[in-house]
Hints:
By secondary structure, the chain is an all-alpha fold. Helices cover 81% and strands 0% of the residues.
Amino acid sequence: xxxxxxLRAYFEQKLAEHKKRNPDDHKSLIGALLxxxxxxxxxxxxxxxxxxxxxxxxxxxxxxxxxxxxxxxxAQKNYDWWMSALQS
Length: 88
């Protein structure tokens, strides 16, 4: 659980940095994340829970750390890419 909380805090930090650097672009990112959340079954969890689970899953598949995968996500400029990376 501690790793999930640490990753959630890291993701939220990256999200806040993104908002500060790119306020207009940030709206597109939030819209894409909300769309991702609305297009899948979140079960009884939250969108945040689903994102952290997907980041962990994709990081494991790609044999990188969850923080590295998060950094990779935030380095992208195309949010359609985010959706495919998190859903594949």
